[in-house]
Amino acid sequence: MKIALMDSGIGLLPAAAAVRRLRPDAELLLSNDPDGMPWGPRTPEDLTGRALDVARAAAAHRPDALIVACNTATVHALPALRAALEPGIPVIGTVPAIKPAAAAGGKVAIWATPATTGSPYQRGLIREFAAGAEITEVPCPGLADAVEHADPDAVDRAVAAAAALTPPDVRALVLGCTHYELVEDRILAALGPRRRPGLPPIAFHGSADAVAAQALRRLGAAPAPGAAPTGTLSVLLSGRPGPLPAAALDYAAGRLLAGAPAPSR
User: Fold this and answer.
1) Phi, psi of 118 (to 5 degrees)
2) Active site residue 140
3) Domain 98-205 = CATH 3.30.1330.60
């Protein structure tokens, strides 16, 4: 079983690591776009073109499924990607975990890129799935870029700015950008001191585990976390074979993936 994941950069690491935990025997192909990143500031048409190039580069390696491990690409390019690749290759998008976060009601914050925050797409998810919750949308300018470059000082500055916009009594926090799941510990550290005494810990809702599980369902494959760890890892950098980006090794998900061998040629 070969599963490809795509993103402009290392935001695909959490989903890739989640797939690896569910199926240690799966071949993983990571398709990044260092020549065109970041995707967020691009127009929807330009972003869709870049996403199609990255997806087609992955498709040339005949994966069994493709995970679009990027919220922004899912918002703007998912229909085009599915039109280009399905039914031959199932394409799984990444949706912010608003539905499970809002299920219990109360106050919920959604951290996302400025391009996603307030977008018709995100507002539609809120209307559909979060009618019983009090939602605060929090834009996080610069956070994805800081994570991408493994710059801890820039991460902390961006996290602090977003934390200042987050109500101190939120019950749940939706991480609406795949990059943010790589620094969940820093986000928790920033929100903790602002939290009102006596409140339970904030429930974090990322998308990586759900996306990995959905990819297996689309393939009709069951999780097998106890399978032999024979899965390989290969990387495409704007279509060119290359190594795992160095910044990936600053994160636990990247180090987990780095231990896999390259596929034999």
Assistant:
1) 75, 0
2) no
3) no
